[in-house]
Amino acid sequence: MKTFISSLLLLFSFNTFAAPKSELWSYWNVSNEKNATTISHQYWQQTLDKYLITRGEFTLFDYAHVTDADERTLNSYLRQMSRIDPREYKKSEQYAYWVNLYNALTVKLILMDYPIESITKLGGLFSFGPWDEEIITVAGKALTLNDIEHRILRPIWNDPRTHYAVNCASLGCPNLQPKAFTARNSDKLLDKAATEFINSDKGVLIKEENVQLSSIYDWFAIDFGSQQQLFEHLKKYRPELKPFKGDIRYDYNWKLNQQ
């Protein structure tokens, strides 16, 4: 009976997992382009510097060895970000703010329940991960990870490269970048992240009779356009790719991106 229930829950989770739509939360679509102030992401950078490790095509996070002091540093960063009203800053500052906040919150969620096998194990009984849980308050609004990605980042910036920037703590996800995003480096970091992912097996795996793509390109097909437009996007970062007319398969590894 226990095995049946576990199997039923797993089936429920995977069958009901669907990428949320990009739906603008207009409250956040405000900026002050005259504000030259920058937002400091120093504490987040310190965390990345100490705990990111590269292994082949994967950038892993060393959750097991995060010290209490360094977890307090991460908590301090999140408190600082929660006290900021990003609407008072330029859009370029906002983009970096939201990406870093998303990634830092994800690491915090893993640390709170570590050790775990996958981020999908977090959340309620019938939840597939923690993405719909309200986990931080910014400018008086309680936010979920899905709010940040699908109601703020995607609809405001309309940049498919955002999918390479936000990290879901899984091996199948585009790597967590070793540099915190800033207004100055965001565009270069996005291109770097796209290049790394599209040239990795977890992004685009060429086989004899078919191509295996990350499920990201299936879940968020609306952001990448038609199949022709998608392959034009992929070819931009992997020029040797040729037009493909065979079967396309999709895959994603939800195992934790741990060292």
UniProtKB/TrEMBL annotation:
It comes from Aliivibrio fischeri (strain ATCC 700601 / ES114). InterPro entries: DUF547 (IPR006869). Residues 1-18 form the signal peptide. Keywords: Signal. It comes from the Bacteria. The keyword Signal applies. This is Conserved secreted protein. Residues 87-198 form the DUF547 domain.
